Known about the structure:
- The complex is a heterodimer.
- Chain A has a single domain (about 5-90), classed as TATA-Binding Protein.
- Chain A is built from 2 helices and 6 strands.
- Chain A has helices at about 30-40, 75-89, and strands at about 10-15, 20-25, 40-45, 50-55, 60-65, 70.
- Chain A has a 6-stranded antiparallel sheet, covered by helices on one side.
- In chain A, a hairpin with a 7-residue loop joins β1 and β2.
- The model of chain A has no long low-confidence stretch (mean pLDDT about 90).
- Chain B starts with a helix and ends with a helix.
- Chain B has a 7-stranded mixed sheet with strand order 4-10-9-8-7-5-6, sandwiched between helices. Chain B has a 4-stranded antiparallel sheet with strand order 13-14-17-16, covered by helices on one side.
- By secondary structure, chain B is an alpha/beta fold.
- In chain B, β5 (about 115-120), α5 (about 125-135) and β6 (about 140-145) form a beta-alpha-beta unit.
- Chain B folds into 2 domains: about 5-25 and about 300-409, Aspartate Aminotransferase, domain 1; about 40-300, Type I PLP-dependent aspartate aminotransferase-like (Major domain) (Aspartate Aminotransferase, domain 2, 3-Layer(aba) Sandwich).
Amino acid sequence: MLSIEDYVARIEETCGEERNFIVIFKYDKKEQAVSKILKKAKIEKSISAIIFELTFKGVSFRLYGTGKAIFRNLKEKSELQNVLTDLLL
Amino acid sequence: MLDPYKIREDFPILKRKISNHPLIYFDNAATSQKPKQVIGAIKNFYENHNANVHRAVHTLSQEASELYERAHEEVASFINARGMEEIIFLRGTTEAINLVAYAWGLRNLKRDDEVIVSLMEHHSNIVPWEILSKINEFNIKYAEVKEDGTLNYEAFEDMISNKTKIVCISHVSNFSGVINDVKRVARVAHDYGALTLVDGAQSVPHLPVNVKDLDVDFLAFSAHKMLGPTGIGALYGKREVLEKMEPFQGGGEMIREVSFDQMTRRCSITWNDLPWKFEAGTPNICDGIGLMEAVRYLRRVGMEDVKAHECMLTEYAMQRMQECQKVEIYGPRDTSIKCGIVPFNVEGLSSHDVALFLDNYGIMIRSGFHCTQPLHQIFKLKSSTRVSFYIYNIREEVDRFVEVLKEIE
Lengths: 89, 409
């Protein structure tokens, strides 16, 4: 049974007013994670096919080909975990 | 003049590629890369000289002790201290500031005393004083920063009084690179009988620092920001100030004698000489030797040349970044009053977005608060992006950085 921990190496929570979550995918799973996310989320904008501006269930985020993503305006880490579960599993 | 192309050959990590792009490392204010000479010194110590220092009589211990003591001497000489007794090795700047707060502040700061801290300080020069003020009930006054990021000296001079016992200030701001006139601050502080604690984390690695000339009482800095290993740094303290202080931590190495009195059933303790009085327990011997090698490397390059090279890159970067329509640079533009740091934001993007974008191109920069949240509040910034240079950075890297920055726009 897969869990988001199988894909996610680390979640960095930025401090201050502008509270963002930066998700860093595991090196050996990053391509799989990026591909899964691109299939499920709506691509609003793409830059050189390596940076994607995406929305998913009302949540906007940016995904990078290097296997990192930045989620904005989420109040709790649990909210992020729910979104990641829906995107990756 | 410094040759950054030749210097780059000494840094193995600069040969790395990130996402198929050559690594451009512009996060030097956070930590520096390490030359093969420092890496080699660490390897050599563990392969040939590893033993605990002091007290043991065997050959390896004597070698390790000599190397460790020489490291203190060379660090002392690097900042023109009077000798190794004025140099205490600690984990880094943060621990050095905490040493001053607890070993000096806890015993000397009382209710109604005042501590002046500048608003441009790294959290490490704010938090220990705030914690201690809750115990000793002294007041903390924050020295204002002007709109251009420089210290408001007039306001500071109005604020200081006979109640002030210590002034805590960074030599160079880790946000803006502004160089504070700590000599002036120390002179004013001494006029009021106060001590001066200078956070030298961003100055000792980047410009010539002469503690005798500055006449500061304490100077704290970290090895890892000056080509050395992590986990080691130093506190300079004037000998006469250190001599009056009680130890920071207790344990082995920092004592001369612990004798048990049969009558009182207690132990009486005499402290070791400086600097060992402040180095409890087995020290970080190997990384101290790594720091010595870093100091040797910087001396060979020459600190005047280090500063000149970084000023050149800073000026060039600020000039090239002006080509970007949506980039706003913070702090002064005059490189005669700042070191190699350029803080900025890109309109409409968070600092983390910018850093992640650049990361795609192998460019490593910092985003967030850089541990200077109060300063960001003053500038009304949610966060910022920061590029910071060192001796191995070159103009071509700045060109590449600006090229990618233009792509973001």
